[in-house]
Amino acid sequence: MTSPPQAATAGNDTTTAGESASLTEEKTDTTQGTTAGRSPGQLMWMRFKRDRTGVIAGCVVIFFFAIAALAPVVGWIYGKDPYTFYGLEDMSLLDPFGYPTGSPGGVSGDHWFGVEPDLGRDVMMQLLYGMRTSLYTAVPVTIVSVILGVLLGLVGGFFGGKTDYWIGRVTDFFMALPSQLFLISTMPVVVALFVAPDKETPVYVRFLAMLIILSFLGWMGMARLVRSATLSLREREFVEAAKVSGASRWRILRKELLPNLYTPILVQGTLMLPMAILSVAFLSYVGIGYTEPTPDWGRMFQRAGEIYQDNPVYMLFPGIAMVIFIVSFNLLGDSVRDAIDPKAGR
C-alpha cells in the first residue's frame, strides 16, 4: 500500500533533481558563453572594478596626475605662484626671525598650506609644481627603463647561450652597484658633460642628466623578470609553430613573445614609477638634482629638514602628499596584477 506513493515521491525527487541539474548546466553554459565572448582586457576590467582598494588607489593616482598637469590653471585661479616672495611683499606674513606668523606654518585663507620661512613663498603652489616636476621627470625615466629592460630581457631569454650569459653578468654587475652612492658620484660628472663648471646649469640639462643616470640604473629588475618569462614561453607550441612556418626571429619576438609579456611588464612598470619618484626626490634632497628656484618634492624635504624643529608644519603637506601617492601607486600595481592574473596572489 505504501510502495506507489514512495515511488511517486522518488520520481518527483528525480525529476526535481534533473530540472535543477539542467538549470545549473544552462546557467553555467550561459556564464561560460558570456565569459568566452569577452576579451582579456574586458575580463581584467571586470575584476579590477570589483577591487575597491584598487579603484580608490587608481582615482587617487589620476587625481595626482591631473592636479600636477593643471598646476598653472590652479595657480591662476588661486592667484599665487611658486616663485613670488610673498613674505617680502607683505611683511606681516613673517616674524623678525623669518618664520610664519599667525597660525602654525602661516596657514590662512590667502595661503591654504602656509608660507615658506625666510622667503614667504606659497607652500601649496610649491607643492603642486613640485609634484609636476617630479612626475614629469619620473615618467620618462620609467618609460626608458622599461624599454631597456624589456629589450635586454627578451634578447637574453630568447637567444640564450653566450648572449644570455653576458647580459646576465652585466645585469648582475649593475645590480651590485650601490645605487645611491653611484647617483651622487655620477650626477655632477654627467652635468659637466653638457655645461661648463663655471656656468649656471639649465633645468633641462639637469633633467637630461637624471634621465640618463636613473634609466641607466633602473632597467635590471625588468630585464630579469622579462628574461624569466621569455625562457618559459620560448618552448611553447606557438613559438615552435612560428619557427617551423619560417617566421624571422624579430617577428617571433614582436608578434609571439611580446604580446604574452604585457602582464608582467605592466605590473612591474607600475611598481617602478614610485621608485623613480623617490630617486628624483633623493637627488634634489642631497643637492645634486633640481635646485633653486625649481620647485621639487626633494628640495622641499631638504628645506623642511633644516627648519623642522621651529616650523614642523612646512614638512606636513609635502610629506602627506608623497606618502599618499606612493602607497596608492603600490596598491594600484597590486590590484592590476590581481586583475590580470587572479591566481598570482594565491
UniProtKB/TrEMBL annotation:
Q: Where is this region: Disordered?
A: 1-38
Q: Membrane-spanning residues where? A: 54-78, 135-161, 173-197, 203-226, 261-288, 313-333
| Recorded family membership | Belongs to the binding-protein-dependent transport system permease family.
Domain annotation ABC transmembrane type-1: ranges:
131-333
Give the GO terms filed under biological process for this record.
transmembrane transport
What protein am I looking at?
ABC transporter permease
Instruction: State the organism named in the record.
Output: Streptomyces chumphonensis
> How does the protein associate with the membrane?
Multi-pass membrane protein
Keywords in alphabetical order, please.
Cell membrane, Membrane, Transmembrane, Transmembrane helix, Transport
Compositional bias, Low complexity, is annotated for 7-18
Pfam families, per database record:
BPD_transp_1 (PF00528), OppC_N (PF12911)
- Give the location in the cell: Cell membrane
Taken from the UniProt entry, a GO cellular component term is: plasma membrane
